[in-house]
Amino acid sequence: MKLPRAARIRLRREFLGVQGRGRRLHAGEVLVLAGEATAGRARIGITVSSKVANAVGRNRVKRWIREAFRELQGELPAVDLVVIARAGATAMGLEGARRALRAAAAARRDGRGG
Question: Three-state SS across 36-57?
Fold first, then answer.
């Protein structure tokens, strides 16, 4: 199931904006960049390079991250998140994705993550 359009970062300039001015948090197998929300709600963009895995593995990682975002969306502050999967992300599972997003939300609330 797709995330609603309003919950996704879709444009290249939006990704680059978060990457340029966002705070970085290394959370295990992913790098989470958190920037100021431009839509007034939490949004997410996911990047998984072909270096991470084959197509099946990349799609599995994206599904885990999307599902974790769906579950945690209510407790996330209004923030734009860009999640960049690193090598080894195929081993993190859904729980690893949840941990990464929770850590990013906590770091954002506490003013850390840079």
Answer: ECCCCCCEEEEEECCCCCCHHH
What does the alpha-carbon distance between residue 57 and residue 17 come to, in Å, rounded to a whole number?
Answer: 27
Within the chain, what is the greatest distance between any pair of CA atoms? Answer: 36
Cβ of 54: how many Cβ atoms within 10 Å?
9
Q: What is the pTM of this model?
A: 0.89
Domains of the chain in sequence order: 5-110 (3.30.230.10)
More confident residue, 55 or 36: 55
Q: Which two tokens stand for residue 13?
A: 């300039």
Angstrom distance (rounded) from CA 28 to CA 55: 21
Return all residues near 76 (Cβ < 8 A) that are at least 6 apart: 42, 69, 101, 105
Separation CA 58–CA 53 (nearest Å): 6
3-state secondary structure of 2: coil
